[in-house]
Design goal:
Number of strands: 11
Number of helices: 13
Largest sheet: 6 strands, parallel
Shape: globular
Radius of gyration: 20 Å
Distance between the termini: 49 Å
Strand content: 5-15%
Structural class: alpha/beta
Helix content: 25-40%
Strand order of the largest sheet: 8-7-6-9-10-11
Amino acid sequence: MKILIIRLSSLGDIILTQPVAASLRQAFPDAQIDFITKPVFKPIVEKFDCLDNIIDWNESFASLRDIRKSKYDICIDLHAKFNTILIKTFCHAKKTSTYNKKHKLRKTIVQHKTNAKISSTVNLYFSALKKLNIPFTYSPPQLHLKNPTEKKSNNTTIGIFPGATYKTKQYPPQKLIELIQLFPQNWNVTLFGSPSEIYLSSEIAANCKRKITDLTGKLNLEQLLYKISELDVVITNDSGPMHIAAALNKPQIAIFGATDPVLGFSPMNSKAIIINQTLPCKPCSLHGSSSCPKGHFNCMLSHDNHKIYEKIKTFIS
């Protein structure tokens, strides 16, 4: 049997598909299970540790032709976008299934027309297996690193990801600076992020009265995974790195602003502490936006840094 899983992007969403891949491996131990994604995310999918092949999606007819030639028996679409529908169609598998995104429910949650909650995006992904009556085991995503590096310092190491796709998902730099200033001087603090976030980390590092290591834009995805594995605590917004830390089972602080855990994007990690405000205007969007629709940004500005610091200390022995 040959199975194809489709999820092209983005970082956090791809990580959340890992339990589906693991369940398929458990259900079909002898099957060939392949995963198609964008090349940039290949290092993440390689850490699922249950796949046979990872196929690069380069948006070409040649790719579609090769997929069709593979003659898959089952095709699982965990993205449900135009390109993935195209792939699923060309795949011409004997059985196909697309996950239920619950887009309408998420929209009504954002519009505050319901008190319903989505427990986890992973549960939504499993809907694709339910449709085919494929058994699955509910478990949090796991990334498996080969030969993880040893921590190089006896001091407490804190990794911070200041960025997020949209402004309303970013803890304001001044608030983050104030939080960092509460840390003891013997804590090693490192900033991480993509090249597009260098300006953000530079602002934070320049205004903190302490030594800070800034690795923003200096690591590829493979290197980043190993760096995160060395940390004692990871601090992120609602972003892709939040899900990396969760899948590596790291103690973590996840700071939510405009978005909200009720939308199903919480880190699936028993070691996660979620920082979130209950406000009548939250959530105001599914993925964040460029500015606060109400103009006050209380979902972020009202977080108490002293309380966050006390929660971080619970991870430090």
